[in-house]
Amino acid sequence: MNHNKTKKITDLVLKAGKTALAETNTKREPEPTKSINWPVDCVVGPGLEGAIACESKIGYVNGAKGWLLYGGYNIFDLCAYSSFEEVCYLLLYGKLPTTIQLALLKNKLIKYRNNHQTLRALMNFSVQEMNPMAALRLGTNLMRNTTTDVNLEGYVPENVEVISADEDSIPMETQPLGQEHAIYEFPGESDSKKVKGQVHPTTGIDCCLHLISGIAVLSAAILRLRNGYMPLEPDPELSHAANFIYMATGRRPSPEEERIMDITLILHADHGMNASTFAAMVVASTLSDMYYSVGSGIAALNGPLHGGANEQVLKMLKEIDSVENVKPWFAKARANKQKIMGFGHRVYKAYDPRARVLAPLAKYLSKGNRKKSSLFAVAQELESQVIATLGVEKRIFPNVDFYSGIVYSCLGIPPDMFTTLFAVSRVAGWTARIQEYLRNNRIFRPRARYIGPFDMHYVPIARRSAKKK
Ligand code: SDX
């Protein structure tokens, strides 16, 4: 990637990071925490708010300070200097890769872009009439069928992460020992703790990479099919971000567009135990496999309270239509106690650091485009009015979804595909956290407090009446 052309974008990110630091450095620094001695006390609210489900080294969200870290690296540095591929390695392995390790990962992602069989199977369905997230979820099931020919109940050899595949989607590599299954290992991985024994053959690292690559290919193909075009062949010369734009829109992005897409993928990659990550982990904790687990993450992300908000934000900004209309619109929304899409967060009671990066990128991309710049102006006016009221009263600030829609639409992605783009990135966090949890797996099984009666006597139906007692 041509870095001096994209230096201004790096500067925008670093400036956002400096502002974040200046605005939140008065907040108490978080204490580094050690491994948990279970059972642990915690105050739990409805929706498991505050519940500690597990421990993790993958990512950290500090709601008071508006911080987001992946493996200890702050999100502003990762957006400024890293790439989505490098962040995938960090999430999956807990460290930044060496040049060789990154090259190996990139080669695997490029190999796993070839999902011809999956796409052929997908085109047997009327994708254009399906909800894009439903099509994406179907696609992950098709990936599972066309990718593993192993008997899924089969025993997995000790101490290896194994994936077996047909030549169509994951080219087999003969192993020196000539094992029947392809066993992929990255050099220098021996220090990472091998997953023992009973791990399902479709939950190894290569399965994660297959899904990270495949979800991007599927989303782009679904976008093309919905617009009446055939899916495009991936371009092995392009980065993950650039290849997604190419496969989705048919045009190779400019260096700036590629850089901005790469940054949005980094920003959305992981975010602690959010609803879709938790959903994916619950399914994986039953030792169902990665494909089913990612499918449940996609289902959870589809909800407008979670991943679907950025599409609603764009609708809202278009409905407001001008800066002058913001005040009356917002007054009416407040009077109706309406939740403003793209604002508020279960954890952040400060400005979402991801929105801090996405706002200047939305401004940068919308410059020169009258419609998009007017949307951005409306967003900025709405932001200032919300922060001045709900921000003060209830710590409600813009979240990741508030500006991402403007960025995506400037990159040529239609609003009904925004949430699939969220999944293109979040699949990295889903798979990484599943891998981490499976190393000390325990099926998720919280409680429900029973508040019903105990002493009911059975009455035959003939003697029952509809009247409430
Ligand atoms: C994502 O968890 C994650 O990390 C998620 C995510 C990720 O990366 O995975 O960050 C991605 O999901 C971002 C959020 C996208 N959703 C939206 O933008 C939808 C609008 N936001 C709200 O629905 C809400 O803020 C939630 C769902 C995001 C969080 O809601 P909470 O924590 O359950 O907050 P709440 O509903 O308990 O609200 C607390 C108070 C209420 O007022 P009172 O009843 O106390 O008077 O804050 C108010 C709410 O009415 N409030 C809002 C508001 N969000 C909360 N008021 C106006 N507009 C809003 N957006």
What does this structure look like?
The chain has a domain at 309-410: Cytochrome p450-Terp, domain 2, CATH 1.10.230.10. 50% of the residues lie in helices and 3% in strands. The chain has helices at 7-24, 75-81, 84-93, 99-111, 116-122, 132-147, 205-226, 240-249, 255-267, 275-285, 290-301, 309-320, 323-335, 353-366, 370-394, 401-410, 418-438; strands at 59-62, 67-70, 73-74, 162-163, 182-183. The strands form two sheets. A three-stranded antiparallel beta sheet has the order 1-2-3. The chain starts with 6 loop residues before the first helix and ends in a 31-residue tail after the last helix. The model is unreliable at 149-201 (pLDDT under 50). Bound molecules: s-citryldethia Coenzyme A. Residues 271, 274, 305-306, 309, 339-347, 390, 394, 396, 399-401 line the site of s-citryldethia Coenzyme A. S-citryldethia Coenzyme A binds at residues 271, 274, 305-306, 309, 339-347, 390, 394, 396, 399-401.
CATH architecture annotation name of the domain at 309-410: Orthogonal Bundle
Q: Enumerate the strands of the largest sheet in spatial order, edge to edge or round the barrel.
A: 1-2-3
Q: Residue share in helices?
A: 40-55%
The value of Rg in angstroms is 23 Å
* SSE-based structural type: mainly alpha
Query: Which outline best applies?
Result: globular
Task: Please tally the helical runs, counting DSSP H or I stretches of 4 or more residues.
Answer: 17
CA(first)-CA(last) distance: 72 Å
Under CATH, the homologous superfamily of the domain at 309-410 reads: Cytochrome P450-Terp, domain 2
**Text of the CATH class of the domain at 309-410:** Mainly Alpha
Kindly state the number of beta strands: 5
Give the percentage of residues in beta strands: under 5%
Order of helices and strands: HEEEHHHHHEEHHHHHHHHHHH
- CATH fold name of the domain at 309-410, please? Cytochrome p450-Terp, domain 2
Quick check: average pLDDT?
87
Hetero groups: s-citryldethia Coenzyme A
Sequence stretches where pLDDT stays below 50 over 5 or more residues: 149-201
Largest sheet: 3 strands, antiparallel
